[in-house]
């Protein structure tokens, strides 16, 4: 069923160049996926401790004498870091291992519970879903104990006649035209459980004035807005609108020093999704489909990310992954997040800084103050690694065990040495 939809969908995008393949695939998937959530596993132990692991503190690892105790009450929190293990508590030996917070994918499109399970198997404990196209389906993915925690945007604010709107037949009444009642639209998305607001800046997209208004409306409701922008012209709109978050990186040129310092001084955060571009540029058939022209290349992506990082723009780790659609695209959940960490390191991030951008940095980005670091009161989203990722970033794949909200992930799919070569990902 999904495959059929995706193939029909492929036919539509091959004739319509557009800039966000992945959101469209997500729409196709979300429209067709039956609810496959089977309920959460009941926690078996109400308490456990991880003993003698080295604990990531944002900059590196501290002493191996650490004891973490987790008490499971619904969404389990870390009870204490340090001290002694009281008698009768199940203890996991972390000797010689490395404990980092669960990873957060700040731009991803899971559309089923099995997608969330795939993410968990790679230690991605939080997924920030970038487009909700069916509020009923999205609400079913929320709060699934023991699998990746799902945080979601609402319906995307895309322009009437824009690529995002036309390629997928978004009813005109749901798009942003000149007369759209923006306050009603923003209310409607939050009224249906959106965790934040999503805007698509593109050709025929909302005007800068409309984007600015929607950002302000989201603020009035105590939330924030993230804007999709993949080209220089639209990135500049996202900057001008003061959107709190900018998703992606301009592919067709280099941001000026002035633009980058404006991003920084306005307190905007950026999720570059380098992996999305790396895969797109590796596939000659995909570039034109995505609307890339001769001005677009991966070197622009790397330079923009490096320049923003050096200038102190807060960066989070996101992939734009959509999963696998047989014969169409394979942009795997989870594994891609580890590849994105490697891309950021290639762009000049230190290893610890990259991990920080996928944990505490991303938590700050999406205002998830209950996660992203290993401390008392934080969600027990944890990865126990066999080897040190601060020495070699590819070691984030060397997962010994993972917990989401204190519940151990039953099947780890990540493997040390797993390749990020696009050739290994053919559909
Ligand atoms: C939205 O999702 C629900 C639950 O998965 C499904 O029953 C319904 O058919 C979907 N609606 C549309 C328009 O696809
Ligand atoms: C939620 O969405 C439905 C349509 O799916 C709409 O009729 C309703 O008004 C929305 N609820 C709120 C509170 O905005
Ligand atoms: C590529 O597209 C961008 C955005 O539409 C445009 O600004 C640029 O001039 C184009 N470059 C070429 C070589 O066509
Ligand atoms: C990438 O594209 C830019 C134009 O956007 C061009 O100046 C630059 O030389 C290109 N770099 C590579 C490595 O192709």
UniProtKB/TrEMBL annotation:
InterPro entries: Amidohydro-rel, Metal-dep_hydrolase_composite, Metal_Hydrolase, Metallo-dep_Hydrolase. It comes from the Eukaryota. Residues 206-406 form the Amidohydrolase-related domain. PANTHER family: ALPHA-D-RIBOSE 1-METHYLPHOSPHONATE 5-TRIPHOSPHATE DIPHOSPHATASE. GO terms for molecular function: hydrolase activity, acting on carbon-nitrogen (but not peptide) bonds. It holds the Pfam family Amidohydro_1. Keywords: Signal. The lineage of its organism: Eukaryota, Fungi, Dikarya, Ascomycota, Pezizomycotina. Residues 1-22 form the signal peptide. This is Amidohydrolase protein.
């Amino acid at each position: 069923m999904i495959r059929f939809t995706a193939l029909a969908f492929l036919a539509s995008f091959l004739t319509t160049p557009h800039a966000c393949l992945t959101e469209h695939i997500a729409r196709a998937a979300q429209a067709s996926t039956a609810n496959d959530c089977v309920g959460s596993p009941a926690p078996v132990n109400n308490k456990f401790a991880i003993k003698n692991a080295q604990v990531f503190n944002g900059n590196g690892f501290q002493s191996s004498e650490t004891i973490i105790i987790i008490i499971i009450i619904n969404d389990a929190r870390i009870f204490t870091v340090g001290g002694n293990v009281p008698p009768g508590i199940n203890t996991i030996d972390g000797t010689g291992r490395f404990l980092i917070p669960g990873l957060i994918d700040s731009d991803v499109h899971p559309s089923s519970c099995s997608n969330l399970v795939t993410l968990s198997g790679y230690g991605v404990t939080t997924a920030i879903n970038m487009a909700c196209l069916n509020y009923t389906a999205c609400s079913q993915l929320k709060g699934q104990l023991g699998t990746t925690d799902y945080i979601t945007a609402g319906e995307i604010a895309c322009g009437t006649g824009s690529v995002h709107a036309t390629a997928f037949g978004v009813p005109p009444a749901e798009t942003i035209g000149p007369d759209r009642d923006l306050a009603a639209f923003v209310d409607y998305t939050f009224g249906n459980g959106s965790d934040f607001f999503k805007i698509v800046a593109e050709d025929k997209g909302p005007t800068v004035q409309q984007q600015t208004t929607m950002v302000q409306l989201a603020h009035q409701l105590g939330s924030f807005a993230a804007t999709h922008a993949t080209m220089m012209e639209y990135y500049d709109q996202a900057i001008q609108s003061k959107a709190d978050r900018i998703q992606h990186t301009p592919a067709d040129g280099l941001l000026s020093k002035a633009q980058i310092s404006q991003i920084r001084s306005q307190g905007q955060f950026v999720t570059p999704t380098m992996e999305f571009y790396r895969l797109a540029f590796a596939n000659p058939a995909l570039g034109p489909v995505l609307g890339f022209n001769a001005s677009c290349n991966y070197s622009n992506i790397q330079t923009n990310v490096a320049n923003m990082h050096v200038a102190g723009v807060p960066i989070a780790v996101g992939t734009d992954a959509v999963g696998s659609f047989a014969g169409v695209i394979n942009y795997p959940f989870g594994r891609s997040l580890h590849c994105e960490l490697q891309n950021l390191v290639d762009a000049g991030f230190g290893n610890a800084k990259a991990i920080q951008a996928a944990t505490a940095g991303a938590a700050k980005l999406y205002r998830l103050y209950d996660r992203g670091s290993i401390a008392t009161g934080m969600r027990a989203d944890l990865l126990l690694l066999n080897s040190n990722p601060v020495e070699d970033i590819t070691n984030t794949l060397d997962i010994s065990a993972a917990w989401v909200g204190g519940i151990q992930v039953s099947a780890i799919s990540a493997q040390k040495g797993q390749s990020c070569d696009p050739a290994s990902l053919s559909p």
